[in-house]
Design a protein that fits this description.
Radius of gyration: 19 Å
């Protein structure tokens, strides 16, 4: 299985990625994770940083976006690892048409083209409610939602009453901007992959297991 998983913040993309990892024994390749690991390695005592690690660190230290060539280089290296031999789930890349074309060229070169691009489709109003209602326990990290799965009080009911907090990027004004960016970036990608017969649309407004079964069916899994 070689897929890209598309989904707005709050669509359940992270949860579904982990279920796919467990079910198929293939890695979730998050470009965000790759970049953080690169920066960590570049500053690790005794470690001789690679050119890609140094480039990633320099860009992130400067508050700039890491260039596509560096990200693609990291993806190439990650795909060469043994656990990716049976397939992969790409998360966070591509984000635009240029990246999609570059990724397609890389995978073609490796003889491992995409088999599907799965879009977790969810109404923006529902997404907004999921994110703005999210609260996290300071003690155990358990996630609540004041609309869909509220705790008994304003404290965690399973963690000695630890306080529930709202992440800064879950504030309403921030969420609105995050969803606007996703919409602007994703719509062209949807058309791009649809024209190539790769797009699979899954209704994400359901319970976790139902969405997972829909994804498996969409990509021809069992």
């Amino acid at each position: 299985m070689r897929i890209v998983l598309l989904g707005a913040p709050g669509s359940g993309k992270g949860t579904q990625s982990q279920l796919l990892v467990q079910a198929y024994g293939i890695p979730q390749i998050s470009t965000g994770d790759l970049l953080r690991q690169a920066v960590s390695k570049a500053t690790e005592p005794g470690h001789k940083a690679t050119d890609l690690e140094n480039k990633a660190k320099a860009a992130m230290d400067a508050g700039k976006l890491v260039d596509d060539a560096t990200v693609l280089g990291m993806i190439r290296e990650r795909l060469a690892q043994p656990d990716a031999s049976k397939g992969f789930i790409l998360d966070g890349f591509p984000r635009n048409i240029a990246q999609a074309e570059a990724l397609g060229a890389l995978l073609k070169e490796l003889g491992r083209p995409l088999q599907a691009v799965v879009l977790l489709n969810l109404d923006l109003g529902i997404l907004f409610k999921r994110l703005s209602g999210r609260r996290i326990c300071e003690g155990c990290g358990r996630v609540f939602n004041i609309y869909t799965s509220p705790p008994g009080t304003l404290h965690c009911d399973k963690c000695d009453g630890s306080k529930l907090i709202q992440r800064p990027d879950d504030k309403e004004e921030v969420i609105g901007k995050r969803l606007e960016v996703f919409e602007a970036q994703t719509k062209p990608l949807i058309k791009y992959y649809e024209e190539r017969g790769l797009l699979r649309v899954v209704d994400a407004d359901a319970d976790m297991q139902t969405v997972f079964e829909s994804i498996k069916k969409a990509v021809g899994g069992k």
